[in-house]
Write a structure and sequence with these properties.
The protein is an alpha/beta fold and 272 residues long. Helix content is 14%, strand content 27%. The chain has three helices and 15 strands. A seven-stranded mixed sheet has the order 2-15-1-3-4-6-5, with no helix packed on it. Helix 1 links the parallel strand 3 and strand 4 (87-91).
């Protein structure tokens, strides 16, 4: 069994302790929560260093709201070094073809795999995946959806294959948009389910639904909350994050989601 640690970061500020009842530290063998029956995700504090075991397979998702924003890349580089991140997933990268990879390179990582929004990419959307230089990977572009921003990469450690997916859905809320997303998601889930070569299958995403997963505080549901979670569950995927991923002065939400097919093998998961 691998020790997987999955952490989801947000472009919002999660530092307000009053918004989280589940703060805890993560050890190399288990995690605990102040309110175990309510929240299993942890709100990690890295002000005194990393609480994550560097020997874990550490996957981090950052909903970044433009990787080109001032100091954003420098902050990412520092977090990668501190947490010893193996796979870094970015949503809302806000890039287009005019931005070369050398401008967004992170030391110690392969050249980023990217799926920019094809139209007006600098104004929204886009996903990136960075993979540590010591890991072997393969970009499975032929398995990616042509809709939304979707990246599929296989990462191999010893003889174990991880199918890691980044996915972004814009906040379009018409009935037609919802039906289109559900069909697209089902196609991706079907491909992953039938992808027998991979033991672990991860979807790390900003899908603009998911308030229904939040244990504390109770949040108002998003339009897709009534149907989309059941679709993912029907293919054997469990969503891990159950505390808010985005906290501002005027709103609190959980719309940045991590789904996995083998949740029992996760050592810890949560937010920064």
């Amino acid at each position: 069994m691998f020790n997987l640690a999955l952490i989801l970061l947000s472009s919002g500020d999660i530092a307000d302790d009053s918004m989280s009842d589940c703060s805890s530290e993560c050890s190399d063998t288990s995690y605990t929560s102040d309110i175990e029956e309510q929240c299993k995700s942890l709100n990690f504090d890295i002000s005194n260093g990393s609480p994550i075991n560097p020997d874990n397979f550490n996957v981090v998702h950052y909903n970044i709201n433009s990787i080109l924003a001032p100091d954003r890349l420098e902050q990412l580089t520092a977090i990668c070094r501190l947490l010893n991140i193996d796979v870094l997933i970015i949503t809302e990268s806000k890039l287009d073809e005019n931005i070369p990879n050398n401008l967004i390179a992170i030391p110690g990582y392969h050249e980023p795999i990217r799926h920019d929004r094809p139209i007006n990419g600098r104004h929204g959307g886009g996903v990136l995946i960075y993979i540590a230089e010591n890991l072997v990977f393969q970009h499975k572009k032929e398995l990616q959806s042509e809709y939304y921003e979707h990246i599929w990469v296989d990462v191999k450690i010893n003889n174990t294959l991880f199918a890691i997916n980044a996915l972004y859905r814009p906040p379009n809320e018409t009935l037609a948009d919802h039906q289109h997303f559900l069909q697209t998601a089902e196609n991706i889930l079907s491909r992953l389910t039938n992808y027998d070569v991979a033991k672990y299958k991860i979807i790390s995403s900003d899908l603009n639904f998911g308030n229904c997963f939040c244990k504390s505080p109770i949040l108002n549901p998003k339009p897709l909350d009534s149907v989309a979670p059941d679709l993912f569950a029907s293919y054997g995927f469990q969503q891990l994050i159950d505390i808010p991923t985005r906290v501002t002065l005027v709103s609190v939400s959980l719309i940045d989601l991590i789904f996995i097919n083998k949740p029992d093998d996760i050592i810890c998961h949560g937010t920064l």
